Amino acid sequence: AQKITQTQPGMFVQEKEAVTLDCTYDTSDQSYGLFWYKQPSSGEMIFLIYQGSYDEQNATEGRYSLNFQKARKSANLVISASQLGDSAMYFCAMREARSTLGRLYFGRGTQLTVWP
Amino acid sequence: DADVTQTPRNRITKTGKRIMLECSQTKGHDRMYWYRQDPGLGLRLIYYSFDVKDINKGEISDGYSVSRQAQAKFSLSLESAIPNQTALYFCATSDVAGGQKTQYFGPGTRLLVL
Questions:
Q1: Quick one: DSSP state of residue A31?
Q2: What's the confidence (pLDDT) of residue B100?
Q3: Shortest Cα distance, chain B CAs vs residue A30, angstroms
Q4: DSSP letter, residue B36
Q5: Contact in structure between A77 and A20 (CB atoms under 8 Å)
Q6: Which residues touch B108 (CB under 8 Å, ≥6 apart)?
Q7: pLDDT at B97 over 90
Q8: B1 Cα to chain A: minimum distance (Å)
Q9: What are the b/e assignments for A35-65, b being 16+ CB within 10 Å?
Q10: For residue B102, what pLDDT is reported?
Q11: In this structure, how many other beta carbons lie within 10 angstroms of the beta carbon of residue A111?
């Protein structure tokens, strides 16, 4: 079974609007971390935001926020006031605490296109 | 200077050739990883290493081998490249399993196998 599911292969949003990118996860661990990465067309992986499973408040980083719903096992990324430069592939990822490897499990990604 | 570097950044090779992708880091991290990215599949783990004496297979290790020459260096080899190994390859490092920002990625190597 997929540990990370991103059901939106592509999303479109108009500049200055908000957009939500969906992510659900599957784990039996009580302790885990959730990450979002941005990958522009140049290919590098850019870390955006992190949410720990024990964090009571949703994480925020500037225009990025993570809508964490633990009971539903969802960790959606919300980008407010979209900009043209937000056009990129976005990956949700998870690290399980029981894995001492620190490895990440990735979803298949959502391609976001911001139009003027 | 970048904390995690990969060489080469782009490589074209022919089926059957042996090639090596190199990764170096200046972060002093013990854990290093090789991931492969294919369109529509996200990143998948090839190999990972805790230290120079520890090498572990990931989900898709067939056709690949690795070498941890030093704490700072982790190389990925394709012994006999085949076209379906055409992909974007990432090296990553990590300090400890807990906490945020635990994975630092290199810029990636685009590999084309003809």
A1: S
A2: 57
A3: 13
A4: E
A5: yes
A6: A43, A44, A45, B6, B9, B37, B88, B89, B90
A7: no
A8: 15
A9: bbbbbeeeeebebbbbbbbeeeeebeeeebb
A10: 63
A11: 16
